[in-house]
Amino acid sequence: MPTSTPLTADELHRINAWWRACNYLSVGMIYLRDNPLLREPLRIEHVKHRLLGHWGASPALSFVWAHLNRVIKRDDLDVIFIAGPGHGAPGVLGPVYLEGTYSEVYPDKSEDEEGLQKFFKQFSFPGHIGSHVTPETPGSIHEGGELGYSLSHAYGACLDNPDLIVACVVGDGEAETGPLATAWHSNKFINPIRDGAVLPILNLNGYKIANPTILARISHEELEALFRGYGYTPYFVEGDDPDTMHQRMAATLETAIAEIHAVQQQARTSGVAERPRWPMIVLRSPKGWTGPKEVNGHKTEGSWRSHQVPFSDVRDNPAHLQLLQDLVAELSPGGTL
Question: Where are the domains of the chain?
């Protein structure tokens, strides 16, 4: 297990601020129709009449995205991202908007207050931005509305693309579907000489829509044995403290990509295409990470209550309006806006 801390203090601060901004955008998409930068205290008329979206998987998706961006830029890698928990669209749309890509494709969603207001307001609204990673999402090759096909699509994408790495985030609820459970075996079809590689990242957040997930409830030893049996070398990134998790994820991602390159170099130098043991990552993080710990006396972060909208009736409940005010202020990159 990688134990180094590859991020400098400045890198850690910047990657965490970028991730917090993504989480802010996720909350804004679900809740806000106006006042996107909190230029004034939240009022009822700033909040959407109907709250839709999936918060629970979104922070982990943007967390992985942020760390992939770091190594892509540093090492000039050819990487694509597939989001298995496709209902967690805010965790993908936020990074796409923050990078500027969304505004390039949809100029009315400009990188200013007016564009951000439209981005928030039109999320999960008929005829506009879907609550899944829909085909309209820039660069989308995997819709994700029907769970179970992300890993199959990932392996298909890397065939005959020798320089491509496909980072595929698999939700632990999604992992219980038949197509996904079978797709773990797709590593048997990868030729390290002519094909690229898939880096599966299983996000164990513990819950699906209203129940615990199976893979999050078995022992560490059994889970590791399961994936070794599938032919992978699993690396575990576990915890809930952001600073610690950033360092662990950065180190583990560097290790996994170095292993992929080593396997490919060996096969391409020798001309022998033996079946390697590919790396994968198990990311164990709370469902609804960085969201409210508790709502109405009930555990929220790290439970099924974070799956979709962690608290509703914001327009009718002053306590929940204040909770939203506190949440968006806390999630802003600097802690305040």
Answer: 9-331
pTM for the whole thing? Answer: 0.94
- DSSP string for residues in 74-101: HHT-EEEEEESSTT-THHHHHHHHHHTH
Alpha-carbon distance of 248 to 202, in angstroms, equals 15
Residue pLDDT, tens place only, 38-72: 898 999 999 999 898 888 899 999 999 999 999 99
pLDDT digits (tens, 9 = 90+) for 171-210: 999 999 999 999 999 999 999 999 999 999 999 999 988 8
DSSP designation for 111: S
Assigned fold of 9-331 = Rossmann fold (3.40.50)
CB 89 within 8 A of CB 135: no
Distance, in Å, from the CA atom of 193 to the CA atom of 267, rounded to the nearest integer, reads: 6
- Please give the pLDDT value at position 199: 98
**Which residues in the chain land under pLDDT 50?**
335-337
The helix (run of H) or strand (run of E) holding residue 221 is helix 220-230
Distance between CA 61 and CA 77 in Å, rounded? 19
Strand partners, 201: 169, 281
Residue 117: both structure tokens together: 């207001």
Nearest alpha carbon to residue 265 among 276, 254, 255: 276
